[in-house]
Amino acid sequence: MARSVSIKPGNPDDLLNSNVFDPKSFSRVYLSRDCAERTTVKADALLLGVDGGGTRCRARLCAPSGAKLGEAIAGPANIRFGLEDSLTSVLQATRECLRQAGLSTRDLPKITACLALAGASEPIDLADAQRQKHPFGRTTVTSDAHAACVGAHRGHDGGVIVVGTGTIGWAELAGRHYRVGGWGLPISDEGSGAWLGCEALRRVLWAHDGRVAWTALLSALFAQFQCDAHAIVRWTWNASPRDFGALAPLVVEHAKRADPAAVELMRLAAGHIDALAARLIARGAHRLALVGGLAPHISQWISRNTQTHLVPPAGDALDGAVRLARAAAKSVAA
Known about the structure:
Nucleotidyltransferase, domain 5, 2 domains, five-stranded mixed β-sheet
């Protein structure tokens, strides 16, 4: 039987009081449909799923029946770039969910929460987040990629390639997970929105140097920095992946107009997505879902071989987080 680590919650308004639930402590069996026949969630329980990404944090509060009670959006929640700020975003979104449901912070101890956060794929960052005292009755922390995979395949085997501010390949196969990429900028996340923005600015500087020809995309980006190459360099010193990712829509739009630089970047990005897919397929993930904010825009550029393995996602990371929260609640009930 799975065991949980529980700490008696105190004042729900105090962020330092909560239970902590170890996501490794419950078996994958709790994600299956059979679980409903063996265990149930308490009638007054609340389930909270959180999808914390590099651009925004989404939260959904549900009743045990699965009925949505509230859903909200807050700021970014990538714990690699600040655990405190990320958890602040989580709590802002949670409070709004409670407000929509006609509840208050006094109901926090009733919540079993799954916080699926960007950056939680790194062991040290994950451990830091798990050590925090959360205000919920029970809390499990996992990566947004894990939740995206669970949501995309409804808890069954399969893989996902998350293409958003960052990129990562993830698969859940026979109770084990497999990760490809997603190590973060500047060393990884090829093909992501942040990567597109960074590479686009690189080409602006190339054009300024006379190494490549100017295009409409490069000129538009240069104009955003008052046509000052030094301003671009200064901006990059403190730019976050979210900042770089904010430039990606401009690349996407210009690619639709056959801008040479934009088309090159979209093809290069798609090649990186194909590489992630190839590795997941080699691992045995023959059903892949392409998810994330950039996914609809990159799909037409990926290879035919990758496309033959793509299936529509049954849900997203938020659906997966709610499913994992339900699994955690059932494991305790069992």
